[in-house]
Amino acid sequence: MDLIELESLKKRISNVDLFISFCSFDDRTFQIAKSLPYNEVKKALIFINKKAPEEAKQNLEVFKTAFIEKCIIEGVELFDPIALADNMFSSIRKVLGENSHHNILVDVTSFNHESLCIFVALSSIFLNNNHIDFVYCNALSYASETEVESQKWLSRGIRDVRTVLGFSGDFDSNRETTLIMMVGYESERAWRIIDTLSPDQLIITYNDSTGSTTEVNCDADERYANLLEDLAVYYEKPDKYIIPSNDPIKTMNELEKIIKCIGKDNNIILVPMNNKLSTIGAAMLALKYPEIQLCYAPATIYNTKYYSTPGNRCYLFNFMKGE
Fold first, then answer.
1. Would you tell me how many other CB atoms lie within 10 Å of the CB of residue 301?
2. Which of the four CATH numbers 3.50.4, 3.10.450, 3.30.420, 3.40.50 does domain 150-302 have?
3. pLDDT surpasses 90 at 142
4. In this structure, are residues 262 and 178 in contact, taking their beta carbons and an 8 Å threshold?
5. pLDDT digits (tens, 9 = 90+) for 31-40
6. What does each C-alpha distance from 217 to 145, 148, 214 come to in angstroms?
């Protein structure tokens, strides 16, 4: 895992056969694309939700300007997991053909957690003969319209709680269920998931300032974890663990320690709600331990205007090598 300045990305990236990204509603969505060396990218495949908000449609113009004739836009059904998986990988196959050994660069910044887990799972099966690098643009801050922590929000409500496609786990209704909630800034949304799933045991994980990718208020996740603990009043003192969110391998290793303590007598549900790097770590763990079930709950509404402020750094990670 390399942490580099965005302005240095041009010197690090070369010979990219395919660049893949999601176009979302906040300004972080195009920071990586704008920082890439144009002549080193052969094709750019940009996914956008067919029902995306107007902010995302405006941001799409930045991708078109960055890549010009190399840019391929594909609309996807973001809230239909089966259609989403088919959309993503049929588009990739169309661009790359049947040959392998391509250099692929994936900007994971604006994937949502569900689509990223699906992408990780399918990449491990269908793209494992390619060289795949993941890149992630950090945030300077979140919910920038206010400095009052209690007033900050990223999303509100949940549409439903569902199993992530490809990560159904080994679920036995005769066993007790342990829920591992990887908390970020969305404690209200996390609480709604807990209330819906009603597990027998609750475990909360969060990152401290040393394991954060956010530059401002990098210890905020601990405050939201404590708030979630207060909301979960009918769970007697949930276990809490500090897990880094700036390195997928470290995230996976720390989660692995937790599930080994839980043992095999419980159903294990894992909900990644921290940043995208930690979500990759969660997906990698669930690939290693297929008995783990990953769950996701799409929000009812997002803070599209003030969701995040782009940082000046990015993280570069080789997916297949895990480094």
1. 9
2. 3.40.50
3. no
4. yes
5. 999 999 999 9
6. 14, 11, 7
